[in-house]
Write a structure and sequence with these properties.
This protein has twelve helices and 14 strands. With 413 residues, the protein is α/β, with parallel strands linked by helices.
Length: 413
């Protein structure tokens, strides 16, 4: 079980919710361990999946899926035991049930169970009534519920108060459990290894798209999914790998790669020079950025606010060789999403949501996970970047992987 049950129930009490309904892939996975192929395949509401989680301790949470998801929902890693289907009945062909392995036995049983309703919205309304939530305030994961389906759910629950609640889930997930932090650690380590494998092939006359293919292949081997690949080769800013661009000796090289493995995101960057030692200017910029980011890492602890960490980084960069340095942020939180509340770490911003604090400038707490980063871009010259993935502990911080941020001479040896 990944989710922070104590925090979830405490926040339901705080906001007087009779329960919540998860609907986005991230929150379905968070509360149940289920990864829906149909929800990912049929986007924008084409397939609805829900977890209904009552506040009443006498009622258990339940997973509601379309019939096509039964095999995925029967896997060992799905810890939520109460499961229902909706839609058309499906009848499995079975030669000899006694010879089925456990996962297929569970699949056949779930596929043959009684449908909660002919459509997702009717089934959800019925399950909410079954759980005794139909006369209370319900936090709905509205990011994944199209307005037409929302209105039909609302019509089926005339006495319920349905509240847009996707930010409620993000607020719950702000504090990670030890199991979540371990997954983030593993994702970061795998991402770093994949990037390093790519960097061993990073030399003059190699094409950018070849490097990108190496990285994507390594992430695929680990069962992960790539979300972005910034590859700035003597370019200032964020760019994809340019298909036919050939690396040249002396290119200022920087990559920033994001992926998700076992549901949890990783974000790792590397900077270096292709086929030659970095120039004095290259090293000056990198060293200044690293000095500033390390100052903010050293300041990371419970109680410190994002704006203070950001200002620490800016002052550190300016004091170490780039006196006119400016940047809009110092990185971000990370978890099931690449950025989670309070999202960007930087100057305070107002927040307008009934389930969130009124500012992004909230004190760090143990269990929060962050990527502290900064970069220096110049069009026509290139980019340098430094980034550390950390978890806030009771007394300070811990790195989620062994720090290896240095200016590289490529290819990596």
């Amino acid at each position: 079980m990944l989710y922070n049950q104590e925090r979830l129930l405490a926040l339901m009490d705080k906001f007087d919710l009779s329960g919540v309904v998860a609907a986005t892939p991230e929150n379905i996975y968070y509360l149940s361990g289920h990864s829906s192929w149909s929800q990912n395949g049929y986007r924008y509401g084409g397939s609805q999946v829900y977890v209904v989680y009552p506040r009443d301790p006498k009622q258990s949470p339940a997973l509601l899926i379309p019939g096509g998801d039964v095999g995925y929902a029967s896997m060992d890693q799905v810890w939520l035991q109460e499961k229902y289907i909706y839609g058309r009945p499906r009848h499995a062909q079975i030669a000899d049930p006694s010879k089925l392995p456990p996962v297929e036995q569970r699949t056949v049983k779930l596929a043959g169970s009684e449908s909660k309703g002919p459509t997702a919205e009717k089934a959800l309304a019925q399950l909410i009534r079954d759980k005794g939530m139909d006369k209370g305030r319900i936090g709905m994961d509205h990011f994944a519920i199209p307005i037409t389906i929302w209105e039909r759910i609302k019509a089926g629950l005339p006495q319920a108060d349905l509240l847009p609640g996707s930010m409620f889930f993000r607020y719950v997930r702000m504090i990670k459990t030890p199991d979540e932090i371990q997954r983030l650690r593993e994702s970061a380590e795998i991402n770093e290894r994949a990037i390093n494998t790519m960097l061993r092939a990073c030399r003059p006359r190699v094409i950018e798209s070849e490097l990108a293919s190496i990285y994507k292949g390594e992430i695929a081997k680990a069962g992960g999914q790539v979300y972005w690949m910034h590859m700035a080769v003597s370019r200032g800013g964020n760019f994809p790998a340019i298909k036919d661009n050939v690396l040249q000796k002396g290119d200022v090289f920087r990559v920033d790669m994001g992926c998700s493995i076992n549901g949890y995101h990783a974000d790792v960057c590397k900077s270096g020079c292709v086929g030659a030692e970095p120039t004095a200017e290259h090293r000056k910029r990198y060293d200044a950025i690293q000095a500033g980011v390390l100052k903010s890492v050293e300041a990371l602890k419970p109680g410190v606010c994002p704006q203070e960490l950001y200002e620490t980084m800016i002052a550190g960069v300016r004091a170490n060789g780039l006196p006119n340095y400016a940047n809009f942020f110092l990185g971000h939180t990370i978890g099931l999403e690449a950025r989670e509340f309070p999202f960007l770490l930087g100057p305070a911003e107002e927040v307008d949501d009934p389930f969130l604090p009124n500012t992004t400038n909230i004190p760090m707490e143990p269990g929060m996970t962050v990527n502290l980063e900064a970069s220096n871009h110049e069009a026509g010259w290139g980019t340098v970047q430094v980034e550390y993935t950390c978890a806030v502990t009771g007394t300070g911080y811990e790195h989620l992987m062994t720090p290896d941020q240095r200016l590289l001479t490529l290819p990596l040896q």
